[in-house]
């Protein structure tokens, strides 16, 4: 993208033109893998891009067209197809040059146009904050990438060139661009196995974020390299010698840790540079998997391996498909040396990740393996988008999946599954299948029953126990780790809340209509269909269900909608029932403007019981239509409820308890006891003998040494009669001084 603006004077026109021509000629030289027709298509895309960017300069003074050419050159190194190269050349024309998408479709086809569109920033949309703008941009890019992985490859090539030329930008922009690269593009490159790009972006970001530390470490590395050059030459000579003796063919190359990885190790482990002793290593490329393990044995015969520093990523590949054997040995002069052993096919995949699909497509097996890289993650992006339409929430979900570490666990049928570090049994259930996650009831790890929040460890055998009546619990959101699990749970809960709110809205509108003398809601089909259309235009709702949901959530007041509906009914000649009208008005609550709604506790998300007074069946109650919160139930003498009633009477409605509540309800008690051994157990026994369940308990700090202390309990009871039984049991218990229910103080300030 165009992150580099024209701020410096241009070079002479003929020199700039020569530079552009030369760089395009260099790009053409890399396209020998394309057909003549495909090369001509790329040339046509270049001509349009060159014309569109005519007169635009980069901060360095070079013609802007040099940037798209450099991006296309990187894509050509990955052997991407002609469509991707055309999109790379055109990737900035939509946002910077006034060219529209339809023009790209006409000239280059819909695929190229979609690729370019997926890369285009959302300049035309207005957002409240810069962060929201950024989140929306990345959502569009990631979703386009999920549909076509070439989008992210072009984007990473684009970001790589911008980072290589970041020094031409004003210094005040370095931190923002480098931080964004390190936080977002580096993890994406790593997640998709693009190792070379990952290392380069990481190093360039570090150089511009912390230039002083970068220079200090660079000098230290140079000095250490000079000191250890002879040791490294000796190691390479000895390794080559033992492999020649055994006749095992291999290629050996030296490798060095990146400056950023050295800095991170020093920072996280609080080490000095001298204490980082695995700066250097070698990579061995061998003919096959068997040769890799044979070579490992030879290395361990030659040098002593460092305990705990061997990793087998061939048997168990990393999340991004990376495969290699890693071992650290003690070389000459006590120097730690790391070796990586892999096949040529593994090396291509390790360095180029998903791009290996194009680099290695002549080898069917390796091409198929490369094509699978990141496939599950890309599909999960689409799954998350289906359930998350808020850009910031989508990005929050995706960020947790851009996590390089992993644990490897087994299904009961010995299938290996890679999970992010910190993932729980619920994350595992959703990784297997969303239906498994939704129906999770219990879990066994290594044959033992454990809590659902249990974090998984390497080698665990995980068995999920499901039930057709089980459903996602809101508490799961407090411990799940993966974006997929989090989005699936939230989607289920949102759907459940909407269904319940729609049902509650229908019940409330029906009660409001009864207060106006109409027995039921008019049909939304047949003769009344036009009536509902007029009502929806009045409310601004898109559908009948949306209107009912808004009423259930308190976004609209039922009796106002009912009065409008009554007006529409009267226009078509329907009149209220006088008998029903008089009966409803006679029985209506004195302080509210609508008929009563029955509450039995089965309403879930659409009805909330105020925590200030914790109403239970038997209490006199009132219902407050919170704005977007649904119906909130207060006791009629609750101070909070009374203040709301005084300020906002229109939003109150009459509510009554059903004769047969569907569940128990929470009530808070304060129990004052004489402090002593076993007192808590005696109090708990008194409650359970009255068939009350204790859901929460708090007690004073016993170290104060006070003779009497307060215990606070939240218990589940059926109604006020059940609560009275519990209180009687408590007051008869030895050591209990007093016991009472906690309620909200009334407006007078007196407690209960």
Compile the SSE list and pairings:
Elements: H1 13-29, H2 36-52, H3 66-77, H4 82-90, H5 93-96, H6 101-108, H7 110-119, H8 130-147, H9 150-164, H10 174-191, H11 195-209, H12 211-246, E1 250-256, H13 259-269, E2 280-286, H14 289-302, E3 304-305, E4 311-312, E5 325-330, E6 336-343, H15 344-352, H16 356-359, H17 364-372, H18 375-387, H19 391-401, E7 406-410, E8 416-420, H20 425-432, H21 434-438, E9 440-445, E10 448-450, E11 462-466, H22 483-515, H23 529-539, H24 544-552, H25 558-571, H26 578-587, E12 597-599, E13 607-609, E14 621-626, E15 630-635, H27 639-647, E16 652-657, E17 665-674, H28 679-689, E18 693-699, E19 708-717, H29 720-731, E20 736-741
Parallel strand pairs: 2-6, 12-16, 13-15
Antiparallel strand pairs: 1-2, 3-5, 4-5, 5-6, 7-8, 9-10, 9-11, 14-15, 14-16, 17-19, 17-20, 18-19
Helix pairs in contact: 1-3, 2-4, 3-4, 3-9, 4-7, 4-9, 6-7, 7-8, 7-9, 8-18, 8-19, 9-11, 10-11, 11-12, 12-13, 12-14, 18-19, 18-22, 19-22, 20-22, 22-24, 22-25, 23-25, 28-29
């Amino acid at each position: 993208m165009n992150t580099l603006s024209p701020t410096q004077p241009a070079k002479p026109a003929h020199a700039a033109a020569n530079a552009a021509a030369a760089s395009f000629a260099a790009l053409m030289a890399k396209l020998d893998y394309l057909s003549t027709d495909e090369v001509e298509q790329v040339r046509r895309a270049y001509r349009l891009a060159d014309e569109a960017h005519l007169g635009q300069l980069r901060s360095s003074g070079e013609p802007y067209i040099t940037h798209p050419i450099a991006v296309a050159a990187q894509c050509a190194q990955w052997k991407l197809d002609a469509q991707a190269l055309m999109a790379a050349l055109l990737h900035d024309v939509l946002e910077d040059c006034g060219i529209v998408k339809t023009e790209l479709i006409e000239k280059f086809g819909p695929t190229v146009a979609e690729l370019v569109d997926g890369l285009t920033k959302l300049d035309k949309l207005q957002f409240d904050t810069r962060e929201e703008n950024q989140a929306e941009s990345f959502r569009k890019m990631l979703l386009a990438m999920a549909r076509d992985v070439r989008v992210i490859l072009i984007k990473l090539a684009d970001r790589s060139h911008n980072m290589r030329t970041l020094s031409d930008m004003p210094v005040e922009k370095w931190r923002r661009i480098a931080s964004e690269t390190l936080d977002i593009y580096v993890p994406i490159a790593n997640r998709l196995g693009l190792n070379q790009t990952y290392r380069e972006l990481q190093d360039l970001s570090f150089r511009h974020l912390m230039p002083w530390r970068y220079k200090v470490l660079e000098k230290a590395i140079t000095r250490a390299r000079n000191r250890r050059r002879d040791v490294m030459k000796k190691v390479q000579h000895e390794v080559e010698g033992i492999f020649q003796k055994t006749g095992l063919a291999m290629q050996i190359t030296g490798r060095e840790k990146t400056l950023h990885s050295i800095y991170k190790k020093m920072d996280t482990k609080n080490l000095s540079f001298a204490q980082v002793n695995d700066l250097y290593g070698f990579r061995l490329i061998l003919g096959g998997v068997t040769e890799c393990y044979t070579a490992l044995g030879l290395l361990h015969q030659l040098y002593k391996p460092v305990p705990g520093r061997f990793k087998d990523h061939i048997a168990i590949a990393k999340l991004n498909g990376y495969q290699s054997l890693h071992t650290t040995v003690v070389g000459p002069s006590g120097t730690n040396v790391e070796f990586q052993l892999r096949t040529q096919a593994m090396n291509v995949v390790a360095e180029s990740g998903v791009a290996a699909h194009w680099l290695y497509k002549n080898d069917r097996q390796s091409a198929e393996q490369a094509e699978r890289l990141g496939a599950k993650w890309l599909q999960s992006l689409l799954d998350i988008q289906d359930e998350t339409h808020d850009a910031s929430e989508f990005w929050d979900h995706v960020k947790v999946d851009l996590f390089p570490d992993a644990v490897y666990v087994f299904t009961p049928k010995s299938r290996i599954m890679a999970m992010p570090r910190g993932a729980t049994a619920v994350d595992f259930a959703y990784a297997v299948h969303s239906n498994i996650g939704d129906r999770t009831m219990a879990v066994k790890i290594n044959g033992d029953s454990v809590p659902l929040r249990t974090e998984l460890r390497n080698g665990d055998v995980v068995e999920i126990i499901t039930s057709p009546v089980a459903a996602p619990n809101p508490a799961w959101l407090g411990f799940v780790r993966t974006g997929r699990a989090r989005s699936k749970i939230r989607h289920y809960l949102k759907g459940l809340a909407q269904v319940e709110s729609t049902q509650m809205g229908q019940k409330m509108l029906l009660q409001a209509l009864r207060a106006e003398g109409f027995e039921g809601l008019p049909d939304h089909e047949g003769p009344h269909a036009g009536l509902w259309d007029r009502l929806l235009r009045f409310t601004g709702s898109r559908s009948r269900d949306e209107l009912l949901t808004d009423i259930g959530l308190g976004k609209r007041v039922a009796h106002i909608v009912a009065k409008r509906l009554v007006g529409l009914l009267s226009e078509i000649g329907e009149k209220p029932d006088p008998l029903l009208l008089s009966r409803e008005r006679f029985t209506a609550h004195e302080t509210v403007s609508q008929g009563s709604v029955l509450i039995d506790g089965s309403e879930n998300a659409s009805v909330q019981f105020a925590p200030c007074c914790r109403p239970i069946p038997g209490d006199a109650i009132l219902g407050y239509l919170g704005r977007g919160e649904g119906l909130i139930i207060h006791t009629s003498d609750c101070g909070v409820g009374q203040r709301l009633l005084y300020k906002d009477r229109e939003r109150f409605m009459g509510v009554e308890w059903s004769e047969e509540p569907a569940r128990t309800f929470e009530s808070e008690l304060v129990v004052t006891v004489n402090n002593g051994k076993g007192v808590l157990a005696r109090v708990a026994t008194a409650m359970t003998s009255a068939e009350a369940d204790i859901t929460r308990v708090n007690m004073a700090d016993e170290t104060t040494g006070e003779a009497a202390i307060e215990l606070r309990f939240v218990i589940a009871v059926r109604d006020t009669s059940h609560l009275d039984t519990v209180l009687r049991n408590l007051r008869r218990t030895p050591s209990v001084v007093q016991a009472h229910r906690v309620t909200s103080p009334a407006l007078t300030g007196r407690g209960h």
